[in-house]
Amino acid sequence: MSAAAAEAGGGGRTSAAASGRSAATSMADAATILERCDDLAALSSQPERLERVYLSPEHAAANELVAQWMREAALSTWQDPAGNQCGRREGNTEDLPALVLGSHIDTVPDAGRYDGMLGVLIAIQVANRLRDTPLPFALEVVAFGDEEGTRFGPSPALGMRRGGTSTTSAASPCVKRSSTSGLTRPDFRVPSVGRNRWLGTSKCTSSKGHSSRMPIAGSAS
Fold it and tell me: How far is Cα 136 from Cα 95, in angstroms, rounded to an integer?
């Protein structure tokens, strides 16, 4: 066998080995994502079906669990004032515009365990894959708290204007809308889990100097 043929054969074996490692990593990532979907599905207000509405104790617990996974993927984490769970890693320099990935973790009654949650967990796994890869932009992952609108109807909580500041009056019909329990958004005392507080300063940022701030009812105390 010529030296050129031997070199070509060695290159083929190296490529096949790399492809095999990539496939194994992808399968491991998929298994992690599905296992975490099961973990989130266990955080339900109903024992026989999945139901996790906005600003419920189950939502607070889900945010804490998602934040833990974000930190394991080398993201810095925080909750914005609307209860959205956020994670971020900087790019090659700080304060670069961000690529934002994610979905929601609230549910409708009798929900499927992949609706919304799968998008959040895939985004976290993407961040984990890229943790050692230099990026020319920041990477953010967001687990939105109120996409479904099950508890109050359509909500401003999902509509965070990441290019500027979003504000909503406390008198807004959207903020005052009653939940299924007859309470309105300002009536709620938002739960917390451990040291993880719902209220705080928003860091959600897509470009330098542009932060998203939204009101939320109640107190975390």
Answer: 11
Average pLDDT of the chain is: 74
Q: Are strands 85-89 and 210-211 parallel, antiparallel or unpaired?
A: unpaired
This prediction's pTM? 0.69
Range of the domain at 51: 20-211
Rg (CA), the chain: 21
Q: What is the CATH number of the domain that holds 24?
A: 3.40.630.10
Say how many domains are in the chain. Answer: 1
Mean pLDDT for the stretch of residues 201-213 = 36
Distance from C-alpha of 32 to C-alpha of 37, rounded to nearest angstrom: 9
**Rounded to an integer, what distance in angstroms lies between the CA atom of residue 86 and that of residue 96?**
16
Q: In what order do the strands lie in the sheet with 98-104?
A: 76-79, 85-89, 138-144, 98-104
Does residue 132 belong to any structural domain of this protein? yes
